């Protein structure tokens, strides 16, 4: 995986079309041969899943990107995993563990497919978003790389987030207002949820200061 003169066949997990607008041309400029992989069992509701899938296909067509799609809608499986975590987790750490599960599921599936189909490495468009837990994703991907036996190609795409956003606007792509799962939708729109979370964090802060 060393040398700009090499054409590296990378499997790139795509969370959506807009988030691919910077990583795809950036990786191509570095000599990578990219194949997109749409696998996002977390997205809620079904209409949102279809909308993001259609947008990913639209982007792929516009930039001549090969795109492999997993069309299975696995919301029940996602919720079962997420709610199992909720039953066994301190509420203050719940979001991190739930997000880690979600990252791991998507990246692991990408790595498995890449390994089985003789790709050189795998990565994800998630690394362009300043709203994701970047270090957690990186840690998860590195562990998956070791477990599956395929290199994880890491690049911090966040410096190109604004450029990618503008590209998605220029291409008239649908831009989603929340990460994807039902929990992120609640966080995005529920004022009561924000107040409860703020109250919990304040209580934790006071508890730590009183020790």
Which descriptors would you attach to this protein?
disordered N terminus; single chain; alpha/beta; 211 residues
Commentary on this structure:
With 211 residues, the protein is α/β, with parallel strands linked by helices. It has eight helices and four strands. A four-stranded parallel beta sheet has the order 3-2-1-4, sandwiched between helices. Helix 4 (94-116) runs parallel beside helix 5. The longest helix is centred in the middle third of the chain and has 23 residues, at 94-116. The chain is globular, with a radius of gyration of 18 Å. The N and C termini lie far apart (50 Å).
Strands of the widest sheet, in order across it, are 3-2-1-4
**Residue share in β-strands:** 5-15%
Described by the principal axes of the CA atoms, the overall outline is globular
Helical stretch tally: 8
* Rg for CA atoms: 18 Å
Mean pLDDT: 86
Classify the helix fraction into a percent range. Answer: 40-55%
Number of strands: 4
- Give the biggest beta sheet: 4 strands, parallel
The helix/strand series, from N terminus to C terminus, equals: EHEHEHHEHHHH
């Amino acid at each position: 995986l060393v040398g700009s003169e090499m054409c590296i066949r990378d499997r790139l997990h795509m969370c959506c079309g807009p988030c691919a607008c910077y990583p795809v041309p950036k990786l191509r400029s570095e000599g990578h041969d990219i194949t997109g992989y749409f696998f996002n069992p977390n997205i809620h509701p079904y209409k949102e899943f279809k909308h993001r899938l259609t947008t990913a296909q639209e982007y792929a067509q516009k930039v001549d990107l090969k795109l492999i799609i997993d069309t299975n809608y696995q919301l029940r499986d996602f919720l079962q995993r997420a709610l199992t975590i909720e039953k066994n987790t301190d509420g203050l750490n719940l979001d991190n563990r739930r997000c880690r599960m979600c990252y791991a599921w998507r990246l692991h599936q990408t790595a498995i497919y890449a390994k089985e189909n003789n790709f050189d490495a795998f990565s994800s468009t998630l690394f362009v978003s300043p709203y994701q837990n970047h270090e957690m994703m990186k840690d998860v991907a590195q562990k998956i790389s070791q477990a599956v036996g395929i290199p994880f190609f890491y690049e911090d795409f966040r410096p190109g987030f604004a450029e990618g956003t503008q590209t998605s606007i220029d291409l008239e792509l649908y831009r989603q207002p929340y990460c994807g799962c039902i929990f992120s939708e609640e966080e995005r729109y529920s004022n009561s949820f924000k107040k409860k979370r703020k109250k919990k964090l304040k209580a934790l802060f006071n508890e730590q200061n009183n020790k």
